[in-house]
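Fill in residues.
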C-alpha cells in the first residue's frame, strides 16, 4: 500500500507522463500475491483495458485513480514507468503496455489493490469507497470543523495512532505519514485521545494538514520512490532512516517499537506518554 503524499505525487507524474497514450495490452496478476486484490477476474483486465486512452490521474486517499477511456484504474501500490525497450520487472501484479512501447507496472508491497472499474462505479472494497466519499486532508474542505466531526463516543478510548491511522478515518493517512505528524504535534502514538488537551487536539489537526502537505509538495517521503524510481524529497524525521539517531528538536535518541500492527517511531523526550 502507499499513502496520500505518494499517491498524489504518482498521480501528477502519471498525468504528465502517460496521459494521451493508448493501451496496447494489460496483464494483471502475472505474479500471484496473497494480498493483491482485483475487481473481477484479473484474466479479463486486457479485455477491459486494451484500446483505452489514458486521461488524468488523481489521488483518492492512498489510491492513484487513473482514467482509461470509460474505465478507471485505482491502485494503491508503488507504480513505475518504463521507457520503450526497457526491461520490464520480472514480478508485477499489473503491467499496462502502451502503443508507443512505454509501460507502467505496479507491484504490491505488503498488500495492494489493483482495481479496474467502469467510471463512476464503486469498487465494493471498503477502504477505497470510504476514501472516495470523504474530503482529502489536502483540500480546504478538510478544516478544523470537519476534523471535529471525526470524533465519536468511542474516540476517547483510542490511542492517537488508532485514531489517525486506522479505519480510513483520514483517507490515505497510514502508519508511515503518521510518525512525523505525531512528532510535529508532540503527541506519543500511544496517548489516549481522551487525555489530550484542546491545544493538543488543535496541534494534531495542524500537523495532519501541514505535514501531509509538506510531504506532497516535496515529492513524497524519502523512504518511498516515485514513478521514476527516485526517492521522495521529503526528509522523514521519524522513520527507519532515523531510528537510533538524535531527535532534531531535542537530541534524544529516536526509538522504534511494534504497536497496533506496525512499527511506531517516537522521540521519548518530545512525545511523552
Ligand atoms: Zn525530541
Amino acid at each position: 500500500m502507499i499513502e496520500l503524499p505518494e499517491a498524489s505525487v504518482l498521480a501528477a507524474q502519471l498525468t504528465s507522463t502517460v496521459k494521451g497514450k493508448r493501451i496496447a495490452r494489460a496483464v494483471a496478476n502475472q505474479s500471484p500475491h496473497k494480498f493483491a486484490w482485483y475487481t473481477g477476474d484479473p484474466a479479463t483486465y486486457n479485455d477491459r483495458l486494451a484500446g483505452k486512452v489514458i486521461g488524468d490521474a488523481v489521488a483518492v486517499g492512498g489510491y492513484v485513480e487513473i482514467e482509461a477511456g470509460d474505465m478507471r484504474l485505482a491502485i494503491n501500490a508503488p507504480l513505475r514507468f518504463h521507457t520503450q525497450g526497457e526491461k520490464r520487472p520480472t514480478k508485477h501484479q499489473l503491467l499496462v503496455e502502451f502503443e508507443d512501447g512505454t509501460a507502467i507496472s505496479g507491484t504490491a508491497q505488503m498488500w495492494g489493490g489493483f482495481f479496474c472499474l467502469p467510471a463512476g462505479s464503486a469498487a465494493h472494497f471498503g477502504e477505497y469507497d470510504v476514501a472516495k466519499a470523504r474530503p482529502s486532508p489536502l483540500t480546504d474542505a478538510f478544516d478544523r470543523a470537519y476534523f471535529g466531526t471525526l470524533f465519536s463516543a468511542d474516540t476517547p478510548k483510542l490511542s492517537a495512532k488508532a485514531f489517525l491511522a486506522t479505519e480510513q478515518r483520514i483517507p490515505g493517512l497510514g502508519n508511515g505519514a503518521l510518525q512525523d505528524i505525531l512528532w510535529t504535534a508532540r503527541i506519543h502514538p500511544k496517548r489516549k485521545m481522551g487525555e489530550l488537551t484542546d491545544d493538543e487536539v488543535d496541534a494534531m489537526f495542524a500537523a495532519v494538514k501541514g505535514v501531509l502537505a509538506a510531504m506532497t509538495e516535496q515529492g513524497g517521503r524519502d523512504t518511498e520512490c516515485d514513478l521514476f524510481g527516485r526517492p521522495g524529497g521529503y526528509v522523514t524525521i521519524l522513520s527507519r532512516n532515523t531510528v537510533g539517531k538524535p531527535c532534531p528538536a531535542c537530541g534524544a535518541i529516536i526509538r522504534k517499537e511494534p504497536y497496533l500492527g506496525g512499527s511506531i517511531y517516537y522521540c521519548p523526550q518530545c512525545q511523552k506518554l
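The mean pLDDT is 96.
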